Amino acid sequence: MVVVCARRALLAVLLLVGCVAAFGADYGTVTARKVADNVYQFSTSDYGDVGMSGNSVAIIGTDGVLLFDSTGTPASARTILAELKKITRQPVRYVVNSH
Residue 89 sits in which domain range? Predict the structure, then answer.
């Protein structure tokens, strides 16, 4: 009986790990697109059934960056900041979260 329960538990863990690996890679993926000079849009893919996809817009000025919407998760916000650092050395000075 213990061996059967252990095998079922192991199977459940393996299935869970497989599902996370299969779906986790696409959750919260950020893509960047230049909209105009010094204006960039960052789009975040859906987080499965919970939604939370969205768009952020960065406007790069002479003394800093204005960022509209910081996205739905800290992980995607960090990704957007990392992408911004590839585009400009200006710091993010202002964040406007619309919702």
Answer: 27-96
